[in-house]
Amino acid sequence: MNKTLLFNVFLLLSAVVTNKGHGQQILWANKVLGYSSENRPAQYGHAFRAKQILGIPNKLPDFGNSPCAWMPADPDGRNEEWIKVGFEKTISLKQVAIAENFNPGAIARVYAYDESGKEFLISDTPAAQLNVKGRMFRIFPKQQNILVNAIKIVMQPSKVSGANQIDAIGISDDTAPIEAVINIAKGPLLKTKRENMGAAINSQGQEVAPIIAPDGKTLYFTRGNFLGNVGTSETQDIWYSKLNEKNVWGAAVNMGPPINNAADNAITSISADGKTIYVINVYRPDGSMELGLSRCFQTKTGWTFPKEYKINNLRESITGNNKIKQVESMETTVSPYGNVMIISVERSDTEGKKDLYVSFLQSSDSWSEPLHLGNVINTADYEGTPFLALDNKTLYFSSHGHSGYGAGDLFLTRRLDDTWVNWSKPENLGPVINTSLWDAYFNVPATGDYAYFSASEKVSGQEDIFRVRLTPETRPDPVAIISGTILEAETNKAVRSDLIAQIKKNNDVFTKATFDPETGEYRLILPLKEIYRITASENGYFPFTEEIDLSKDTTLRNIRKDLYLQPIKAGQRIRLSSTMFAQSSAEVIRSSYPELDRIVSAMTNYPAMEILLEGHTDNQGEVQKNVKLAEDRVQQVKKYLLSKGVDGKRIQTKAWGPAKPIASNLTEQTRQKNRRVEFTILKI
C-alpha cells in the first residue's frame, strides 16, 4: 500500500465567482476555442490536455507540476504555442489572471476578443526565465471599456526551460487582484491541533491506513518497515490497538495468521457491527496473493481465513503509450452496511491517474463492474484512500488534483442522490488536518467526534497515525446505534438469529446482520431521517419485527433493544405490528406486506398449521363501529394471505373491537398499540 498507489471545442459548466467585498465578478474560462498542441502522455485519460485549463485553478495557490494543467506537446520547443479560451458571458475587462503553476515566464503575448471577434493586444512582454516556481500572472489592460468574452495566450517555450503549464485563466470587471483560493470546508476552522497517537500505536516504522471500529474502541492500521511483522521488515502487516476503560490506547498487537502472511497485508474497512473486516488482495491456499478484495469474519476463536470478494472486470485492460496493461493496484472502502464499495483504481475511463469508482454488491460474493464517480470528484491527477462514513453519504478521500496545501490533501464530499454519481463539490478539510506534506486515509467512528488519519509528519519514525477533533461541518451526518441481544421469549435464552433492517416507506432492505451469542451483542447502525423495521428470524421461531422511528432525530442516538422470538408451536399468540393500519382504516399499509409475508412463509413451512386472526381497535368512536372495523381488518389480513396461496380453511377470524386493550387509550401514542391484529397458532 504505497502512498502514491496505491481543434475541437471543449465545454465546462460555467465558473463564475463574485467577490462580495468588492462587488467584483470573476469568470474562469469554460470552453477551449483552439490551441496549438497538447501533451498526451497516454492514449486514455485527460492529463495535460487543453481542457485542463478550464474552470477554477486546480493547483494554485500551490505551485508545481500538475496533470490538471494545460501543457504544450513540445517542452522547450522553438515554435510558439498558443491557446484560446472563451467565457460564459461578456464583461467589461479590467483584469486577466493567468495561473502559471509550473515554470512560469513563457507567456509572450495576450490577446482579448469582443463578441464580434475583434482582437486587442493587452500584453506584450518578452518571455523570460523567472526565479520562481509559479505565479498568478495578472494583466490590467490599458484599453478602456472593451467588452470581452475570449482570451488568447501565446507562449515561447524555448525561453523558459522545462515544461510550461497553465492551470487556469480568469477575467474580471474589477482591478482587485484575482486570487486562487482553496475550497475549505464550511464552518469555523478547527481550533484544536492534530494529535499524534503516540508510542502505543506509532513506531519507528511506517503506520498508515487507520480503520477505527464503529464503536470507537478498536483501532486497526497497517504497519510497514518493522521487524515485528510476519513477513520481512519490508512487508506490511495489520495491527490493532484497544481502548481501555481509562480511555488509554493499549500497545499495538499484530493480528497474526491467517490474515497476516509473508506478503503485504492491509485492512480497508470494517462492518457496522465490527464483526467483519475487509482486507486487500485475494488469499490463495498456497500462500500466494492476487489483486482483489477479501473479507474475514469474527468467531469466538478469532478471525476466519480471508474469503475472496470478486469485483467484476476489475482487472480491465487499458491502453497507455500504445501498450496494453492491466490494473495492478487499488484502494477500497466497503460501506459499513456491506452493500456499496468505493474503489480508487486506474481504468480506461479514468481522467488521468487513479480515480474513484463505485461498485454494488450483486450476490453474497460478487460485486458489479466499477462505475466512475464523475468529474466533480475525479481530476486528471490522483484520487484515492476513500472512506465512506456511517451515514452512507459522506465520502472522505485524498487528492492531488484539487487545490490544497501540499503533496496530497484530504477532502470531503457528500452524495446528492441514489445514483452514486452525483456529489457535492469537494471541500478541503483545512490547514489543521492538511499540511505541505502527504495526508491521507481519513476514518471516523459512529460518534463523529474524532477523525483518524495518516500523515508524513514524522514524530515517531516514518508515516504516523494522528487524530483530530471534528467540527460539526466536517462530521458525517449523525446516526443511531441499535444494539442488544435476541432471546427466546419464554426462557430468555439467547438465540442465534439473522437480522434485517428495512426502510418502512419502500420496504427496501437497508442492512443485514447476524446475532451470535458467542461473539457478543448485535449492533445495527442506521442513518437518521427514516422509519425502519428491524426483523429477527431463526428456524423454529416466528420472526419478530420492531419498528424504530428515527425520522425526527437530529443527533446521535444509542438505543438498547432486546428482541424476543416466540417458538412456533400450538397455542402460541403473536402480535403483529401496531402500525399495520392507519387510524379508522382497514386497508393494510403497503409497508406491512413483509410482515404478512413472514406469516405466509411460516404457514408454507408448516403445511398443517392453522391460525386464528383476532382484530382489535382503540376506544375512539362507537363500539359497534369499532367492532366492524376490527372485523374488516382481520378480513383484509386474511385476504392478503389467501392471495399468497394460503388455504382459507386454515384461517379463522375473530373481531374484538376495543374490548381487549393492551395499553392505555389516553394518548394517541398508546392508542396506537391497541390498533392491532394478533394471530394464535391453533394447530401445527
TrEMBL record:
<dbReference type="GO" id="GO:0016020">
    <property type="term" value="C:membrane"/>
</dbReference>
<dbReference type="Pfam" id="PF07676">
    <property type="entry name" value="PD40"/>
</dbReference>
<dbReference type="Pfam" id="PF00691">
    <property type="entry name" value="OmpA"/>
</dbReference>
<feature type="domain" description="OmpA-like">
    <location>
        <begin position="568"/>
        <end position="684"/>
    </location>
</feature>
<dbReference type="InterPro" id="IPR006665">
    <property type="entry name" value="OmpA-like"/>
</dbReference>
<dbReference type="InterPro" id="IPR011659">
    <property type="entry name" value="WD40"/>
</dbReference>
<dbReference type="InterPro" id="IPR036737">
    <property type="entry name" value="OmpA-like_sf"/>
</dbReference>
<dbReference type="InterPro" id="IPR050330">
    <property type="entry name" value="Bact_OuterMem_StrucFunc"/>
</dbReference>
<keyword id="KW-0472">Membrane</keyword>
<protein>
    <submittedName>
        <fullName>OmpA family protein</fullName>
    </submittedName>
</protein>
